[in-house]
Amino acid sequence: MPHLKKLLFVPVTFAAFAAAGLITMPAWAQTAGQSDEQRELDDESDRRAEEAELNGLRGILDPDQEGTSGRGSRDREGADGLRDTTLPDTQTTDGNTTQRQSGDRLNRDNIASSQQSRDLDAVNETEPEDPYAALGIRMGSFLLFPELTSETVYNDNIFLSSTNQEDDWSLVLTPSMRLQSDWSRHSLTGTLSTVRSYHDRFTSENDETFSAGTTGRLDILSTTNLVAEANYSEAFENRSSTDFPDNAAERAKTRNRDALLEGNHTFNRVTLTLRGNISEEEFDDSTTETGAIINNADRDFTERRLTGRVAYEFQPGVSAFFETSTNERDFVEAVDDDGTLNGSQGHDVQGGLSFKLSGKLTGEVSAGYAIQKPDDASLEDVDGLIFNAGLEWRASGLTTVRLDASSEIAETTEIGSAGNIVRAVEMSVEHRPRQHIILGAAVGYEVETTSGSDDEDKEWVIGLTGEYAFSRSVALMIGYEHLESFSSDPGSDYAVDEVRMGLRLRR
Fold first, then answer.
1. Measuring CA to CA, how many Å separate 486 from each of 118, 296, 374, 404, 461?
2. What would the pLDDT profile of 239-275 be if each residue is shown by its tens digit?
3. Where along the chain do its domains lie?
């Protein structure tokens, strides 16, 4: 009965909001005449969105033809909303911040380049607003975006076991807020979020995560800016982690701190970027079934990284770049429990292309090589090819395709190994049959290879999502995910199915 009550939590909450008049009932819950009228309005709205998309693309290909782009301005969480389209954007790929070059940052002293930039800016300004995007709460020169998600989740293999699978229901609450400046120059954003989950059978799997961060950009000149970030987060270690202790009874709490300072300068068609960041990772001790202490202090480390990038915009909206970085990783305990020296130094080089073609393709893709040299001479170097991507293709005004890829050399305390190379890729599609309905599908693959051995772990995951927006403030969400993990370690394979349904409230 307890899990039945949690299953009924979402529909009961929805009914309460509907009865109170806080949400608009969907078309299928109204009269037949109202349903026909609603469908006609939706069809007309979608037709206009598609026409706007086509006209916007024609405007790019033929500057003499006026039109608007059909790209919506859906609200995005995190610090991504901080930077405007004329300044560099950043995204996290391999655990470090990777600079994403803006294609429309052209030299204002170059007449031809400036004209092309103004053309692209004019197209961006004509992009229609998403009628279901959050508007936020005006607080002087800032906008506050509060949000609360309440979900009922079913997981059929809560402990990721290959033999003795245990299922459980949980209630997951995710409150968050984002404070974003609304200035003509400079920008400042602060984020705050937490996750609380309450399991029906296994309370040891309850989550209590917390994260906070701030990002600021100082526009010194039209071609020069400084970006600074600081973030802090707490969470419980995932049971799928390579270094998760086999005999641990509960998950250890982890803490992450990171700070970043970045400078960007553009002259003519060349942009130079110099970025430095420092990050710390800390683990609490674990306990065994018998209550014995498992020391995790040898996993605590600090990484310092310095990155430089040169980008050249060879045509409006398309840039080629070369990037190199060097890092140093120092552990709190210089010597591991088995006598191995901890710590390493590494560097990587990569080159690629970045895109900012309004209404069509944005993001970047790159490939290169990375190597990490351990302080202990008895351990092998960790090296290999890397591939990173963060691309978004607007196939139409209603359909978006995304490609995300990352490569990382991760530390490990596994005996005889200096680290792991983790490569992951995900392809996702989002389609809007109606403006208030969003359907999504995704498929992902990850492979983790351990240096100094033949150990290899692979994961496949597929997911389906759906969202029905009743208004800007209220939406119903559903999701399904299937994950399969394969390991070279016998008896470590497992599969997980997870179903979730909930409500999202926001302003």
1. 51, 26, 28, 22, 12
2. 888 788 877 878 889 999 999 999 999 999 999 999 9
3. 2-506
